[in-house]
User: What shape does this take?
Amino acid sequence: MPEIARTGSCLCGGVQFRVAGEPRRVGLCHCKDCRKTSGSAFHAYAVWPLQAFEASGITSTYGARSFCPTCGSRVPFVGEEEVEVTIGSLDVAPTEGLVPDYELWIGRRESWLQALPAAHQFEHDRVAIDSAAGNEIDPEPRQESA
Assistant: This one.
């Protein structure tokens, strides 16, 4: 079976990118920063290993958020080992196979939104989960990519 490749861009097309393979994780975040930067009630994203990502174009960054300096669209944030891609920036919608498996900052979730079935629910930042036992194995919140 061929490896899945997904492409995306900013609104003006000045920043274009490609990710290959399946993401490490897919999530929703309801925190204040994600709400403000997305202009929505939550932020939906997928995280790939850095080696699965390639991009062209000029980006600007504010904190851990990257954007196109021409049109202002959110574009992937490139970390040291991972890249966070806003699902809405992908070219093909709906996005086949990118189902969130966790939600962050659920205390800020709008009352008219329901928890995603089977998704791990975190009060704040993500912690590692022992998938075999379903237990949290790192009780301290992390400040890496969501």
DSSP finds one helix and 14 strands in the chain. The first helix runs from residue 32 to 38. The longest strand covers residues 43-49. Helices lie at 32-38.
